Every structure is written in structure tokens, then in C-alpha cells.
Amino acid sequence: MQLIANFTFFQDAQTLLVAMIAVVLVGLSKGGLGGAFALLGVPILSLVMPPIQAAALLLPILLMMDGISVWAWRGWFDRTTLWHLLPPAMVGIVIGTLTAVITSEAFVRLIVGLLALGFVARMALMRDSGKSGQHGRLSGAFWGAFAGFTSFVAHAGGPPFQIYALPLRLDPRLYTGTSVIFFAVVNLIKVAPYAALGLFDTKTLFSAAAMLPLAAVSTLLGAMIIKRINARVFYPFMYVMITLVGVKLVWDGMIAFWN
Q: Please, what is the Cα angle at 38 between 93 and 67, to 5 degrees?
């Protein structure tokens, strides 16, 4: 344990155990098992380290998971969805970079959470018939840019992506593979501005490297589970996940405002 403590943030067994739990939950999410788990990563790690340090530790782990997820879901993606969402997402990241100093993370989380809950409520009231939605250039431009912006500012790009992609009712494997590629590209683009903030110090990288085996196993496990779920189970599950994400984001935003 002392050897690990010398090179990482894991100064004791408790800190190491909490980090392992956080990585497993985020890995299951990155493998495709719903975005709600991913939002728990920083809060759980914040139990044993400062939130900024927790976010810094998770960032390189997320990049590792992206690589594993892209490999696990290779060949499964919807080209049209990526074409409509990725270019606007890059614009959103640029806007997020330029406005990061004046943007309230709490406000962004609150707005994204309310949008996610509104989307689920709308789908429930419409009594979704199971018919697929349609691609749209304008809606893709809006939600893609919003996903890029909120991902950069508050690590909350999942709901905007889901609001556009879930109504398309893609095959679960196509949906998940498309999501994996989208966020892998978004996270990769975010590396340069995050590195400029000094987040990638040696201790952070060693800590992330120590978590790599667990990150790989949990990510592949999430992918394995999703690949065996049919659409009748997958879509209700995803709507439950986006509801949990919405509640979590609204809660985080309100708590931040009250403090």
C-alpha cells in the first residue's frame, strides 16, 4: 500500500476502495449501460478527495474507457446520426472554451437536468407508439452543439445527445456504438484545453494508470450486457436512465445555487 501511496492519490485502503467503486460505475456506463452511472463518478470520489482532484483523476480514465468502448463496439454506429451531431458538437466545445470563465456550471447542470426530465415527460405523455423518429439538420445542429458545450462545461453532454438519438429508435447496438464514438471524439477534442488547465500532472496519470485494468473490465462488462438486451427492454431502460440523470443534474444544480 505504501508503494501505491507514493505515486498515486490512494493514500489508504479506504480511498482506493472508493476509487474502485467509482471507476466500476463509470466503466459500466461507458460500456453502454446508461449514463446515470457516469454521473456518480465525481461525487463518489469527492468523498475521499477534493472535487477538482476527483474530476482530474477521472478525465484520463474516461479517455482510456473511450478507447476500450470504441474497440468493443467497432463496426456498430449510425453514420447519419454522427454526421448530424459531431460537427455541431465541435462548435459547442469551442463556445464552451471561450465562455468557460463566465459560465455557471450549476446553471448548466440545472438546465440540462430540466430538459432531460421534460423530454421523458413528453415521451410518456405522447404514449410512444414505438415508431422511429426522423433525423433533422436543425435539431441535430442544436442538440449536437448543446451536447458539446455541456460536456465541456459540466461533463453533462449525455442528455442532449439522448434527446436527439433516443427517438430514432436505432438498434440498441447501433445506438450504443454511435454514442460511444460521439463521446470518444468529444472527449478527445477536450484534451487540449483541459491540459492547458494543468490537470494532467504525474500523480494524476499514475493514479489513472493504476485503475486501467478495472476500467477495462467494467467497460467491457457494460458492453457485454447491452449487446444481449433487445429493443423492448433497452429503450425503457434508457428512459429510466435519462430520468435518473435528469434528477441528479437538477439536484446538483439546486444544491450548488443554495450554497
A: 70
Residue 6 has pLDDT above 60, yes or no: no
Of 79, 58, 67, 71, the C-alpha closest to 184 is 67
Q: Kindly report the backbone phi and psi dihedral angles of residue 199, in degrees, each rounded to the nearest multiple of 5, phi listed first.
A: -80, -25
Tell me how far apart the terminal alpha carbons of the chain are, to the nearest angstrom.
37
**pLDDT, position 32:** 77
Contact assessment for residue 15 and residue 48, using Cβ atoms and an 8 Å cutoff = yes
pLDDT at residue 181, as a whole number: 94
C-alpha cell at 95: 463556445
Residue-wise pLDDT tens digits, 181-228 = 999 999 888 888 777 766 677 887 888 888 889 999 999 998 888 888
Among 115, 131, 114, CA closest to 235? 131
- The reported pLDDT for the residue numbered 53 is 73
- For residue 130, the SS3 value is coil
pTM (whole model) above 0.70: yes
**Number of neighbouring beta carbons within 10 Å of residue 134:** 8
The number of angstroms, rounded, from the C-alpha of 168 to the middle of its chain's C-alpha atoms is 20
C-alpha cell at 5: 501511496
Residue type, 148: G
* Residue 230, CB-side half-sphere exposure with 13 Å CA sphere: 1
Three-class DSSP category at 136? coil
